[in-house]
Design goal:
It contains 14 helices and seven strands. It folds into two domains: 225 residues, Vaccinia Virus protein VP39 (Rossmann fold), CATH 3.40.50; 54 residues, no CATH class. Helix 2 packs parallel to helix 4, helix 8 packs parallel to helix 9 and helix 12 runs antiparallel to helix 13. Strand 2, helix 5 and strand 3 form a beta-alpha-beta unit. The protein is an alpha/beta fold and 321 residues long. The protein has a seven-stranded mixed sheet with strand order 3-2-1-4-5-7-6, sandwiched between helices. The protein starts with a helix and ends in a 24-residue tail after the last helix. The chain is globular and about 60 Å long.
């Protein structure tokens, strides 16, 4: 019965978008309307059930400016909602925390709790935050590197409700889909209930295309549901067979100047496209970043840095008496 309700909720979001227009004059952000609608409708499965409402909650990783967190909380004022974010990404001016707080106050939302902390640290100590509740709806929309995605899924495991639904945003990214696929391969009791993708990242869309996909699933979504009885067949997100980018992660991390990879790639792009003006600008930015961290880099080897100096040469674990 619950699986049918999950699928019906996603279908309705795909047809109609948001559950209501509450907060529409205040809220905006980086999630598609259908994604917001799915979060609201899936939360409704718990918030409108008397028993589940007492034992479950909504949790999201990556609050940004509060669109999804407040859209859900506003529609279910008696259902606890938690947003985890240390506001270190997509916030160059350091304004997003203030934006979320101002929007929360303006909308009169009292059931949305911000956990202003790195998501990994927050998930490792989440039990003390939820007041004994389990996560019914879990929205993963934080850092989109492979490890962050996978860890966000893994560390949430002890806190997920028996009927947990997991919504993974920005699934257009190949490394996001790979982490989802790897999680599903390792957890047979979870299945993918729905997937949807747009043709490109929103930043690369022309205005007309962007408007279309802002009303849809925007940058892709994977929705997982716990299915211990195996009622859903296995459905996996498409991934790349070429593992070059993942090997490059290792080659980058061990390099003396690993943290300069973005600046180095921007410079390489300018050089490869014979863009002299941009090349000069990228070079200046690269050298500036290098000088800022030079003391760190000077302590490293040119390559094959293992960061293992000072670690034990051998240590046994001890049995607990």
């Amino acid at each position: 019965m619950f699986l049918e309700e999950v699928l019906d909720s996603i279908r309705e979001a795909d047809r109609s978008g948001p559950l209501s227009d509450k907060g529409g004059d205040v809220l905006d952000g980086l999630s598609g309307s259908k994604t917001v609608g799915a979060l609201q409708r899936l939360t409704a499965l718990f918030a409108t059930d008397p028993e589940a409402c007492q034992e479950a909650c909504y949790v999201e990783i990556g609050v940004f400016q509060g669109l999804t967190l407040l859209s859900v909380a506003l529609n279910f004022p008696d259902f606890p909602c938690f947003g985890i974010d240390n506001f270190s990404i997509l916030d160059p001016e350091g304004e997003n925390l203030g934006v979320v707080r101002a929007r929360t106050a303006k909308l009169g939302v009292n059931n949305a709790t911000l956990i202003n902390q790195d998501f990994e640290a927050a998930l490792e100590s989440l039990d003390g935050r939820l007041g004994g509740r389990k996560i019914g709806v879990y929205f993963v929309d934080g850092a989109h590197d492979y490890r962050s995605q996978f860890i966000a899924l893994m560390l949430a495991q002890p806190y997920l409700h028996d009927n947990a639904v997991v919504i993974i945003d920005d699934a257009n990214y190949a490394f996001v889909r790979q982490s989802t696929r790897d999680f599903l391969a390792a957890h047979a009791d979870y299945k993918m209930a729905f997937e949807a993708y747009s043709p490109d990242h929103p930043a690369n869309m022309d205005p007309e295309t962007l408007k279309k996909w802002e009303s849809g699933w925007l940058n892709g979504v994977n929705i997982l549901v716990r299915d211990p009885e195996g009622r859903l067949p296995q459905m996996l997100p498409p991934t790349e067979l070429d593992r070059t980018l993942y090997v490059n992660d290792w080659l980058t991390h061990r390099h003396q100047l690993a943290e300069l990879a973005p600046e180095a790639l921007n410079l390489a792009q300018a050089v490869c496209h014979n863009d002299g003006a941009r090349e000069a600008d990228c070079k200046d930015k690269l050298l500036k970043r290098f000088q800022q961290r030079r003391k760190v880099y000077d302590l490293r080897n040119p390559d094959r840095n293992t960061y293992s100096a000072g670690l034990t040469e051998g240590r046994f674990n001890k049995l607990i008496p």
